[in-house]
Design goal:
5 helices; six-stranded antiparallel sheet; alpha+beta; globular; Beta-Lactamase; 166 residues
């Protein structure tokens, strides 16, 4: 990662978010930039639904909506423990849910995931990237954590975005 370009891109995305009044467009901007900067193939943003005790995607590149019980999968592990995960060989991780790959036809090789918090420091979801050709590292994780803050803010403001567009 070229640090100067990476953080300049982050500033540019921030400016775009301020000008954008569409919830989905803001999430897509973030996802596209994360994929571009890290070299990942896919990005998923999971939020927690207390009523069903599930994590479900409000954005998942290359696939429709995914529902995962909050106690299952790597995403569930991150949610339960509040620990970030870098897993560069998912077949060695007992939490990996291969059923999602079977359902989607996509082959997951590696994952990086971190918790998403709201402004009250409450855990509200998980940000996940898939399949970086040389694997994920700590620099990717630091960058992902910065973006998780953006995403937490956008999710928290979603009712205002959605009210304005309805």
């Amino acid at each position: 990662m070229n640090e100067n370009n990476t953080f300049q891109g982050l500033i540019n995305v921030g400016h775009s978010l301020l000008k954008n009044d569409q919830f989905e467009d803001g999430l897509s901007l973030i996802s596209d930039h994360l994929i571009d900067v890290t070299g990942a193939e896919r990005c998923s943003i999971f939020i927690y639904e207390k009523k069903s005790a599930e994590l479900w995607t409000i954005l998942a590149t290359g696939i429709g909506k995914i529902h995962v019980p909050s106690d299952k999968g790597i995403v569930g592990y991150v949610f339960r423990t509040k620990d970030s995960v870098i897993e560069n060989n998912v077949t060695k991780n007992s939490y990996f849910l291969s059923d999602i790959d079977k359902y989607s036809g996509y082959k997951t090789l590696n994952i990086i995931a971190c918790p998403i918090y709201n402004s009250e420091k409450e855990l509200i979801g998980v940000l996940e990237l898939l399949n970086k050709s040389n694997g994920f590292d700590e620099d990717d994780l630091n960058f992902l954590n910065i973006y998780a803050n953006y995403i937490g803010s956008i999710i928290e403001l979603a009712p205002f975005y959605l009210r304005e567009t309805n």
